[in-house]
Amino acid sequence: MNRWLATLLVFCLLAAALAQDATPVPTLAVPTLLPAAMPEAPSRPSQSAIADISARGVFRVGVLYNNPPYSELTWQGELTGFDIELLREIATGWGVEVAFSQVTRMNAIDALQRGDVHALASALLHYRGYEDEIEFTQRYLVGHQAVMARADSPLQAPDELAGVKAGVVIGTRAEMALGLWREHSGITPETRPFFTLDRAFAALRLGEIDALLAEEQSLLRVAGEELPHVRILDEPLLREPHAFAVRRHDAPLRQLLNRSIQHLAETQQIELLQREYFPDLARDADTIVVWQHVGEEVTPSQFAAEISAPAESTLTRLLEGEALRVAGLEADMPHVAALNRALVTEMARRWAVPVVESAVSADAVLQSLRQGEVDLVAGVKLDWQMAGGINFSMPYLLQGDRLMVPARSQVANFYDLRNRIVAVMLGDDKAWQRAQAWADSINITIRRFDTTLRGAAQTLLEHNNANAVFANSLQLVDHLNTNPGTLKLTERWYSHDYYAFALGYNDPDFRQLVNYTLQEVILDGSLARMTGGLLLGGDLPDFSITPGSSQFVGLNLASA
Question: Considering the domain boundaries, does residue 265 fall inside one?
Fold first, then answer.
């Protein structure tokens, strides 16, 4: 009997011990919430991550492990994807190893701010709401929040979605994209929520909904073999810029990554990766803005390891009602000067601040900016040789070498100019050297004719002295506007020169203000109106638009 009682006691004690570690049983009672510790605001770093990358020879990047075709851990335990291969190319150029760390969309920013990783890729896309905590590089790819319809659907564009039953998966970026699109378009579809994309796609096929909104690559994957029965509309609901994220104020690493992106674009490495991972994706030459003088190699040693930043942001001064101090409004071409003035005036109007124009000479404007004497310099070419100690806004003007030909001409490019005559502006030997270099690159012979800026159209239309005029696009637009239907530009750009505002170094708040305002000026059509005859409608470049609200630091940046 005693032995039986002892055995029973042992089992009771064992059960009690196991109960302490048992999985809690769900109940209907609401659990008591304990106060969570508020995370401290990240302190401004004194050293760039470049210092650690150089010292250890390792570039640590946080990525998602379940985000094909950008980053994915395969069943074989290998990381693959567009972002993964791009980062490997970047690290190879730097002469370091790349180490990938798994992050989620929930913990990615914390991992970056703690210093667990030097940068983020694939985990976050460049939306305005993130820039209060981190900074983004320039974009290296543009994705789409797209609209899928059945193959026999009459839908042709998103602006036809009013009242249409449209499915969207709860908690995805498609929800955010739909909200932003509704805000700008004023169009409201009849939204149907779904928990999974598979269920939403089935609803589309069964006719329960007439449109499905999701990330384009996700739509292609979920359609699979049923792709012939559906189609994705040509115009996306929202364009999403893919960019790397770095710690806020780590300007050296951001610039290093920007230059690496541009170098890989110029050497066509990014295009090769795009063809591998996105064979059906339309490639736009303006997706990646390449500055002048990128160089033959890009390494961390070209950038400072120490971080310097202004004691006070220009944004703080402007919010207190102080004037915007500007320089560089004048330009060699009257059209460009007029654009500079109109753009600065419009931005200041939206910020509700006065403008004070500095009398600094053209040769000294950038030095004046570096010394904090002006806030903004207009009309500065994006050039790595001028980037020391300043930052640039996004570009607002594109110019470059183009071929102008008669409208009925069959000339489409330099291939069609073999043994023919190419005109350049009188005395512009550099333009002729560039034209000759293009001819040499395809082993053809061209002959030179010198024309005047005023007489370029007559050279082609009346005197037949040349088969094409090769010149800067801004030198040609007046002739095209004066001779509509008789002159045209061939499709190809033979060079890209982007112009932007030069801003104070490492002032992300003011750079955000300038960039967001420029984007709103583009979105509402104000920039196109300001250019007047400066640019043809089809020549407006595909400027990078960061999706997000028009409200910023209490200002409504949209046109009033």
Answer: yes
Q: Token pair 């583009």 is at which residue?
A: 522
**250 and 135 in a common domain:** yes
For 264, the token pair is 């890989």
Distance (Å, whole) CA 408 – CA 420: 16
Residue 128: CB atoms within 10 A of its CB come to: 18
For 311-367, write each residue's pLDDT tens digit. Answer: 999 999 999 999 999 999 988 888 889 999 999 999 999 999 999 999 888 789 999
Q: Quote the pTM value.
A: 0.87
| E strand spans, 176-243 | 190-194, 211-215, 230-232, 238-242
Residue 335 lies in a domain: yes
pLDDT digits over 288-314, tens only?
999 999 999 999 999 999 999 999 999
Is 303 part of any domain?
no
Tell me, yes or no, whether 147 and 231 share the same domain. Answer: yes
Indicate whether 442 belongs to any domain.
yes
Concatenating the DSSP letter of every residue in 326-367 gives: EE----SSHHHHHHHHHHHHHHHHHHT--EEE----GGGHHH
Q: Count Cβ atoms below 10 Å from residue 472 Cβ, excluding itself.
A: 17
